From TrEMBL:
<dbReference type="InterPro" id="IPR050553">
    <property type="entry name" value="Thioredoxin_ResA/DsbE_sf"/>
</dbReference>
<dbReference type="Pfam" id="PF00578">
    <property type="entry name" value="AhpC-TSA"/>
</dbReference>
<keyword id="KW-0676">Redox-active center</keyword>
<dbReference type="InterPro" id="IPR036249">
    <property type="entry name" value="Thioredoxin-like_sf"/>
</dbReference>
<dbReference type="GO" id="GO:0030313">
    <property type="term" value="C:cell envelope"/>
</dbReference>
<dbReference type="InterPro" id="IPR000866">
    <property type="entry name" value="AhpC/TSA"/>
</dbReference>
<dbReference type="InterPro" id="IPR025380">
    <property type="entry name" value="DUF4369"/>
</dbReference>
<keyword id="KW-1015">Disulfide bond</keyword>
<dbReference type="GO" id="GO:0016491">
    <property type="term" value="F:oxidoreductase activity"/>
</dbReference>
<dbReference type="GO" id="GO:0017004">
    <property type="term" value="P:cytochrome complex assembly"/>
</dbReference>
<keyword id="KW-0201">Cytochrome c-type biogenesis</keyword>
<feature type="domain" description="Thioredoxin">
    <location>
        <begin position="208"/>
        <end position="346"/>
    </location>
</feature>
<dbReference type="GO" id="GO:0016209">
    <property type="term" value="F:antioxidant activity"/>
</dbReference>
<feature type="signal peptide">
    <location>
        <begin position="1"/>
        <end position="19"/>
    </location>
</feature>
<keyword id="KW-0732">Signal</keyword>
<protein>
    <submittedName>
        <fullName>AhpC/TSA family protein</fullName>
    </submittedName>
</protein>
<dbReference type="InterPro" id="IPR013766">
    <property type="entry name" value="Thioredoxin_domain"/>
</dbReference>
């Protein structure tokens, strides 16, 4: 039996620029408690509304200082400590790592027993996360119950969005319960685009299913020309969501090449929807895998509006649509694709 592997949305989002949003300043000060002088650099990185940012600061008297800005209500922040020589990071000089939520305003970190253990002040989101983690560690209730209770009792917290997004993307909640939790979020929180995207994915629970009409979409092909799903009406069309960086997707391409060659003369076609962010990598993968069918992409990875429309939270995913535009099968991988097409075109 073939092992099914998918490339999930969480943790693989690439870098994109978005419309200018209101920025809020944050100041980050850290101190390493040690008997000896700490040397080197602290490197900081975070992703704010899809835009990757990074910075570095010298350690001076065991302290470091950062100033930056964010448009999101909170951002996951990573700090790395490395030794440097003549201003350049020394190879294999990694000395520590911490991760936490930054918010607008003043944040302070006190590192002790090395670097990886720290106390943080000024980040209520991180404070709440620490409390939730303690509750989950105690195991007095299932994790999903703890997170859902938190969402209900903290409608304006960024952490409520984080918990809900993960639950929804993993499809660990029903449409009804997910919608109830989403509707309970504050108006202020629902102004953020990422939060709105959760609602889009929830909506797809109801609209993307076997027997439902496939939602039309339009995107540019490899030559920049718009292609619409509706233009394939009258034939069976396999809409395939994939990306050049997704190894399971690339492993499926030879199967689809064989299916395409076998059935393309019988009113069958494939339309690839790439969740790439790099056009050069996308085009290279098409050439390397011998993909001969049409391809479109907005080059926005999982932030792609089509992916949101179809509730795509992991790839590969595909939908077989009949000549009338209805979804007749989903997630046809390996032998299942050949079996279904043989049934359709018998």
């Amino acid at each position: 039996m073939r092992k099914i592997i998918t490339c999930a949305a969480i943790g693989v989002l690439p870098i994109f620029a978005f419309a200018q949003l209101k920025q809020h300043k944050f100041v980050l000060d850290g101190k390493i408690v040690a008997d000896t002088l700490s040397t080197g650099k602290i490197y900081l990185d975070y992703t704010d509304h899809g835009v990757y940012r990074r910075d570095s600061a010298e350690l001076k008297n065991n302290t470091y200082h950062f100033e930056g800005s964010i448009s999101d209500k909170a951002v996951t922040t990573n700090l790395f400590w490395h030794e440097v020589k003549n201003g350049i990071k020394v190879n294999k000089s990694f000395k520590g790592f911490v991760q936490f939520y930054s918010v607008p305003g003043q944040i302070s970190l006190l590192h002790h027993k090395g670097f990886n253990q720290f106390l943080i002040t000024g980040s209520p989101v991180q404070d709440d996360l620490n409390q939730v983690n303690q509750m989950m560690k105690a195991r007095t209730q299932p994790e999903d119950v703890i997170k859902k209770d938190y969402i209900k009792s903290h409608p304006n917290s960024w952490l409520s969005f984080v918990f809900l997004e993960k639950i929804v993307r993993a499809k660990q909640i029903s449409f009804a319960e997910g919608t109830t939790l989403y509707n309970g979020l504050s108006t202020g929180l629902k102004q953020y685009e990422q939060v709105k995207d959760v609602h889009k994915i929830l909506s797809s629970y109801q609209t993307v299913a076997i027997g439902k009409k496939a939602m039309d979409f339009t995107a540019n092909d490899v030559n920049g020309k718009p292609v619409s799903l509706s233009s394939f009406k009258g034939k069976y069309i396999l809409v395939d969501f994939w990306a050049s960086w997704c190894h399971p997707c690339r492993a499926e391409n030879p199967v689809m090449v064989m299916a395409y060659q076998k059935y393309k003369s019988k009113d069958f076609d494939i339309l690839g929807v790439s969740l790439d962010g790099n056009k050069k990598a996308w085009l290279a993968a098409i050439k390397q895998d011998g993909v001969a069918w049409g391809q479109v992409s907005n080059l926005q990875a999982f932030n792609d509006k089509i992916a949101m429309q179809y509730g795509i939270t992991s790839i590969p995913r595909n939908f077989l649509i009949d000549p009338d535009g209805k979804i007749v099968a989903m997630d046809l991988r390996g032998e299942k694709l050949e079996e279904k097409l043989a049934e359709v075109f018998k």
